[in-house]
């Protein structure tokens, strides 16, 4: 159990197709260790889905949640596409953040959209999926999810996680993101690398070390797990978050 001095408040920002409940298994372990969490659900999904939405709507959701909860000295965590969201949110929350933590983040350059961080073939596929959908959304096929996103889990876990997914609005991930202010911030940063993350092909376009190089030098924490390690190995991810988030 963490002492008061060691207690960490984590703000957990999910990636594509998820909502805030995707963190619940990780939160269980963090709470048992004495830490606090906040896991907002970004707009454009669930019962309160609102289309169309913008990238800034997602950012504002995180900022508003942190301010409404009166939180400070937080560890702001972004998974996958949530990594881009927390960067922009950090511009408005810098004085409340003790550390940024990325988990297999999608990080584009200043002035680029999130989509620029994915391999070109994947980007083209996402565009085709959005155009073919009735509401400009994208959604992963089960075979891609099963082996590419969560191959380290048993089938029951993978299927249960898949059943929780919701279509992702395409609009926010094709909007250019101005990171001029973010690039002036000096916030301590950590990067968690699930070593079995093969969403993108290993090599030039893999998450690691490509995304790590975009934030290095920073603290690196490596754990066994897939891209969806919050489902397949939540206890290990909780432990990695504590290592990544501590001073």
Automatic annotation (TrEMBL):
GO terms for molecular function: hydrolase activity. Keywords: Hydrolase. It holds the Pfam family Abhydrolase_6. Transmembrane segments: none annotated. PANTHER family: AB HYDROLASE-1 DOMAIN-CONTAINING PROTEIN-RELATED (PTHR37017), ESTERASE_LIPASE_THIOESTERASE DOMAIN-CONTAINING PROTEIN (PTHR37017:SF11). InterPro entries: AB_hydrolase_1, AB_hydrolase_fold, Sec-Metab_Biosynth_Hydrolase. This is Alpha/beta fold hydrolase. Signal peptide: none annotated. Residues 10-239 form the AB hydrolase-1 domain.
